[in-house]
Design a protein that fits this description.
Elements: H1 2-23, E1 26-31, H2 33-37, H3 39-42, H4 44-65, E2 72-81, H5 87-92, E3 106-114, E4 120-128, H6 142-156
Helix pairs in contact: 4-6
Keywords: Signal
Organism: Brevundimonas halotolerans
Signal peptide: 1-22
Length: 162
């Protein structure tokens, strides 16, 4: 009988987690047409990873705030700029220095949030460093990640308009 004493709380937690997962927002991210055209320049793998990263960042922010339960969020990564050269750029231009070359980065995101009751809200957000002095990151996609975080926080706190 003691074995079941352990499983009862475990089953309750699993049931609650399953109910929460069923209510969590559905987030999808696709690449915009302009970005698809830049796939050869920036690297398709990098772009797909950034689209996945945007989805994960939004999902985590919404889960943390328990916001937009039951909503469907369809996002388009319209534009993205790296702070450092991508692998594809380094391969295409051997003169680039992967460590010392840096540029203004950021991202533009558009999409639509459909609430559980069917109400739709368009969303648009962009953030880019305004000059090289602002570029503090050491990673290729630092400013894009910063844009994703800012967008996700705005979405999770109910500021749907860009």
């Amino acid at each position: 009988m003691r074995r079941f004493a352990f499983f009862a709380p475990l089953a309750a937690v699993t049931l609650i987690a399953g109910a929460a997962a069923a209510q969590s927002p559905d987030v999808t991210v696709v690449l915009g047409p302009g970005l698809i055209e830049k796939a050869d320049e920036l690297g398709e793998r990098d772009l797909l990873q950034q689209a996945d990263q945007l989805a994960v960042t939004v999902e985590r922010a919404l889960a943390r705030e328990q916001a937009l339960t039951g909503a469907t969020i369809s996002l388009v990564l319209v534009d993205i700029r790296p702070n450092r050269p991508t692998f594809a750029q380094l391969a295409a231009q051997p003169g680039l220095d992967g460590m010392r070359s840096k540029s203004i980065g950021g991202a533009t995101i558009e999409g639509e949030v459909t609430l559980a009751d069917g109400t739709r809200y368009p969303v648009r957000y962009d953030w880019y460093s305004s000059n090289l002095a602002e570029v503090r990151g050491f990673t290729t996609w630092q400013d894009a990640s910063h844009a994703f975080d800012r967008f996700a926080r705005r979405l999770a706190t109910g500021r749907l308009a860009g």
